[in-house]
## 1
Amino acid sequence: MNARLVVIGLAPAATGALRTGRIFTGDASSKFLVSALYKAGFANQPISESKDDGLTYSGCYVTAAVKCAPPGDKPSKEEFRNCAPYLDAELSLLRHAKAILALGSLAFRAVVDRERKSGADVRGVKFAHGASYQLRNGLKLYASYHPSPRNTNTGMLTEAMLVRVLEEIKTGLAKESRDD
């Protein structure tokens, strides 16, 4: 897979990915995220309703830190710990990845914990919407609020805010390609 951007959400939603079989599909969070990915040029269409809807990503891979739908949408530390090897395996297979976009502080923490376990110095790496950090092996970590209805309905995250982060990532990826 030639994905240069890896988008990491929290966990499959019971009404979305768990029901449809594809992460960020068929729920309010997916509508918000996929529309932003489309506007930034990472998706071929602005909708994600079913795994047969024709959606394809361009240079982008979408996954979750936790692999099962947690009770109350709040994964336990044990769930993060149990799922960490699967996220690690996914990221290890994505050899062309140069950027990770963590959606929400918990997905961000999963990436930082992975870095810490590998021996990387992660002091000073803190979640803030729009923040970015250079990681080991040429990866760059970006942070965004999660596109949950709780965040989008209150205006904590607007589509323009998410598109801005995605465009920053796209610009960084393009610059890196020119520098190679």
## 2
Amino acid sequence: MIIREDNLEFDFDDNHWKVFKFDDHPYYRDRMEKLDGTKAIDFLGIFDDQLFLIEVKDFRGHTPENRGRLLKGELPIEIAQKVRDSLACIVGAYRNPSHTGYWHPYAKLLCNPDKRVKVVVWLETDPPPSHPRSRQRLGASVSMNAFKRKLTWLDSRVLVCNINGGGLPDVEVRNFSTS
């Protein structure tokens, strides 16, 4: 299944992934989004009997105006809030009799204390022009720690990925342009 977000195309292997664009799902749009301030992650998926919540941020070409969100810790807070609201949506949808079947596999994994929820922050930024590649990895590591601190309440595994390093299993990610 191919899902586009920002300037990226995610090709999830249909044999291993059950995934959809969470923030476009009718239950979220028609019910949860109506509550002021509610936010949602981009993709919800199951791979290898594990629940994945995936948020995509493509700051390439817009890194300077988003630098503050990264350096001041605003982005980790924003993503933690999206995760919180998305989990509430999963539970609410599962408890709705007309939606229970669709949401059952997600709610089952979410509520199973033996299964760890994986939160993936897919973060694309412009490379610093004067920094070697090892400095980029260090920057990603620092970012990952900030995301982990904001999500300690969930007992999740947090991954920060991008097109050049670190990725999701059985997923190909490509740049695309609509022009």
## 3
Amino acid sequence: MTIRTRVENPADAPATRRVHMAAFPGPEEADLVDALRRDSAWIPALSLVAVDDRDLIVGHVLLTRLRVGDGDGLSMAPVAVAPEWQRKGVGAALVRAALAAAETAGERLVVVLGDPDYYGRFGFEPASRHRISGPFEAPDAYFQALPLPGYDGGPHGVCRYPAPFAEV
């Protein structure tokens, strides 16, 4: 079977929630996605799903608006793949598609908190190299940034995540 990525439709929300519930040990990530859908940080064109040959949703990635110092950037979180599709390239396809969509939308910067070995292959590097920091304690290698082609050295400063991140 093969997968393809596409923008999530409103009708996909229940299937997307099922993927998050299956991919993570608790409901926190699924609840976060639901809360972000109701927040001004939500960017519908930057919520993408992976679907299999039967058009079943097998993965999801979300980019939402966040503040970086006095400017704007994007947060990549969460990324989820149904357990039976993990380690088959679905997550990588979603990340690549999300970054391409962000670039096409004219965005300048994406941050992620995650495994540097995994996200490094997409070009992410420690955010501190761009004078960007997170609002929480995290090892430097794990709080990462990816400047997109429109990046001109800014924004920089402390990231402020949308309110739903603090609620779940």
## 4
Amino acid sequence: MITVNTKAYGTIDIDERQKIFFPNGIFGFESLKDFALLDAAQQPFYWLQSLDIKETAFVLISPFIFRKDYKLDVAGSELEEIGLKPDDTDNMLIFAIVTIPENQQKMSANLQGPIVVNRQNRTARQSIAINPKWKTKHYIFEELAGNKEEVC
């Protein structure tokens, strides 16, 4: 167990397996390499908490929750940097960074810059989607409503 100062929960103990290393950091936060992946109090969200700066934490969501058609479409070389191959889907976790504005109905997820985690070696990177279909703002509630309409 390691003790972590978090933005959301104060000081907590986490399992060593929750630590994730970003060799290149996250876009805009390149100097921060060490993070912890935490379950959020409200499912289906997660916290990506910097281990260096308590105030730096990101809300994450799996894109597959609100976009059943989501396909990770990033350069194979970017996956290789963290020890993955494009078909190694069982060994990868894929997240999108969530932005929560004052009007929470306009909560959005960045599918253009997915976070990919190698589950085995716990290294990760933020990549850039090759497919222009994926934008920096996908409105989660709107897309969930759209998915329900398609199913009915």
